[in-house]
Amino acid sequence: MTWVNAVTTRESTGLELDDIQSGALHERPSPYVGSYLLLRIDDRAAGRELVRRLHPIVDSGRPSPDPIHDAWITVAFTYQGLKALGVPQDSLDSFAPEFQQGMAARAAELGDVGESSPDHWEKPLGTPEVHVALAALSPDAARLRTVLEKARQAHQELPGVELIWQQDCYQLPTGRTSFGFKDGIGQPAVEGSGIPTSNPKEKPLKAGEIILGYPDETGELPPMPTPAVLGRNGTYVVFRKLHTRVAAYRQYLRAKAATREEQALLGAKMVGRWQSGAPLALSPEQDDPELGGDPHRNNDFHYADDLRGLKCPAGAHARRANPRDALDHEGSVNVRLHRMIRRGTSYGPMLPEGELEDDGVDRGIIFVFAGAHLKRQYEFVKTQWLNDGIFIGAPVEKDPLVGPNDGSGAFTIPRKPIRRRLQELPSFVVTRGGEYCFAPGLRAMRWLAELDT
What we know:
By secondary structure, the chain is of the alpha+beta class. The protein has 2 domains: about 240 residues, no CATH class; about 190 residues, no CATH class. It is built from 14 helices and 10 strands. A 4-stranded antiparallel sheet has the order 2-3-1-4. A 4-stranded antiparallel sheet has the order 6-7-5-10. It has a two-stranded antiparallel sheet with strand order 8-9. β8 and β9 form a beta hairpin. α2 runs antiparallel to α7. It is globular and about 70 Å long. This is Dyp-type peroxidase family. It holds the Pfam family DyP_N.
């Protein structure tokens, strides 16, 4: 296997925003509507023509004052997709092993077992048929139609390219997830992106943590696919469709809490934030909607002053996913090596307020993660922090919201004088499918379109 780090010092400095797909760096709009499309390439020449047509409609990562650029398309390829385009084998071999294997092959390690196993995934997710992934996001339906029409024109009249799956998404009327929580808070800033940090206590990540071809937090250049024109300014993308069991979640809170106020507190303890987005670290006793809605304050906190978890439990979802400075005292874990860009969008209608019975409708979250290191970013966080509790001293405890719980799990809420331990945690999230993809830079897209193998 070839792992190439050879990039000149000149090439390593300065983020080349004009060559980076906008979806890798920029937040989705709010409100938003969007659509995810998966395509299969049956004819190599048609696949290359598709890439050639898509190239001009993929925006770069440089901010634009033009409102139309609030709507964009991001293009990514699976390993099988790059193979279908005729990428030479030595180049294919230079990609991360996890990407080459694909998410379905790594399901057991990721905790996608039982109902979440690939045997039960929504087809064609997790199959070799998925070659190209398109994500179109927009502030409104009119602009979404415009970018989707561009995508349709790109693959129409190409008999060797087939649209095999589509999932529409949209911001729920509440502006929150199907579980009722404000989402999208706590993204890391990326050095050189021009996008300011929302947490003044956290300096921007080195660009190489997210975009290939630049030094990362270790000071080194991450392994990059070859040739350099293919790998540079690209990023790995993790795509997940997660079905949420909202009725089961509400039933559990009601069974464990006597009042609505206690239910809200219990939900906040499990998540690490109140439904408004206000973090427990800053407002541990009651919700503070003004704080939750203030992007200058709702991410301005650390956990080092709460190592016992009396304000925010160490096992809460948000704290597991990003422990911030809570592990600094151990000296063995550099949390910054496991940070990544996270994009969440909702699909399916809300379960009506107060409804405790499942209505049989598919609803949930499409999660997209971007980073330069599949293994030490997404896979580490999923396996070591969300699915396991060793790092917080509770080996048998999984993430209470998104962990692969099976009805036998527990969740500890520290408090004085006696902690509370919730038992019999069921599964609130079921994996419906996923893919590992690679979103190349714009020059790389031209290279793919012009392949002559």
